[in-house]
Amino acid sequence: MILQHAYRIVLITIFSAAAITFVSLMFVRAPYGRYTRNGWGPMVRARVAWIVMEAPAVFVILIFYSTGTSMTTPLTIFILLWQTHYVYRTFIYPLLMRGARKGFPVALILMAMVFNGANGFVNGYHLFHAENAYPVSWLVDPRFLIGVFLFFWGMYVHIRCDHILRNLRGPEDTDYRIPYGSMYRFVSAPNYFGEIVQWCGWALATWSLAGLSFAVFTAANLIPRALSHHKWYARTFPEYPKNRKAVLPFVM
Ligand code: NDP
């Protein structure tokens, strides 16, 4: 009962935070990566930051998974999808990144940890504790099939585009260059586009408010940052391809 109450409150908080985040990021660029600047308190290395801030997403959902009452095949698939993404983002991506000695504000790490904990909580609670048993027949439901397809396609796009960015730099290099290839033909931030598509797929496959809250928050977080990146590229490189959009191919 207490958990159910907490679930509702956290879910409403995530939707509200998404609206606040979207509006704020249209005016203030999150101070990491190319927008790193003083005035945001102590910093740690970016590699450490990514591991620490994403870790709650790996572990919080595992608590719900390991204490869940029923376990159907769709639920097993959901935990595998979630952990496939978060093992990549928490452990593989930071170990591979270039220019990882850059500073990353501790304040942002704390905010991200709170979000990842809350997100792991609502998704973990909904899937494994809320008695929304997904029957085996869910495996052939079009929402599940299309959702899982979008999840993997989005994941492929953002991992591929992370890889292209990484290869623009040498091991200790922190310079920026124009990325080409794959979905960079269409947009300046295809890694963000892939991540948004992936969590829209998750929302569809789980057909849940918890999944939807994650997709909405991801878009609210990444669309303003993609718009900033797009303007930054155009300002920084006179030869930047004019036909690229920011994040949604042919649209924005
Ligand atoms: P960016 O695209 O800004 O940067 C990704 C990496 O590539 C960084 O190491 C960056 O270095 C480097 N890089 C970026 N552009 C260039 C360039 N032109 N030349 C050389 N190197 C470059 O992504 P973020 O750091 O914002 O995010 C990383 C990943 O995390 C993304 O895949 C994103 O989708 C995901 N993410 C998801 C969120 C969510 O809400 N679900 C929130 C935030 C991120 P540097 O750091 O030095 O700029």
Description:
With 252 residues, the chain is mainly alpha-helical. The chain has one domain. Helices cover 65% and strands 2% of the residues. The protein has helices at 2-27, 46-67, 73-96, 106-128, 142-166, 190-206, 209-236; strands at 43-45, 103-105. A two-stranded antiparallel ribbon has the order 1-2. It binds NADPH dihydro-nicotinamide-adenine-dinucleotide phosphate. NADPH dihydro-nicotinamide-adenine-dinucleotide phosphate binds next to helix 5, helix 6 and helix 7. NADPH dihydro-nicotinamide-adenine-dinucleotide phosphate binds at residues 33-34, 46, 97, 99, 102, 158, 162, 165, 168-169, 174, 176-177, 179, 191-192, 195, 218, 221-222.
Low-confidence stretches: none
SS field, number of helical segments: 7
How many domain regions? 1
Average of pLDDT: 96
Query: How much strand content do the residues show?
Result: under 5%
**Cofactors, ions, other ligands:** NADPH dihydro-nicotinamide-adenine-dinucleotide phosphate
- Secondary structure: number of strands: 2
Kindly state the percentage of residues in helix: 55-70%
Largest sheet: 2 strands, antiparallel
Q: What is the N-to-C order of secondary-structure elements (H for helix, E for strand)?
A: HEHHEHHHH
Radius of gyration: 18 Å
- Report the end-to-end length measured between terminal Cα atoms: 43 Å
The shape, in one word, is globular
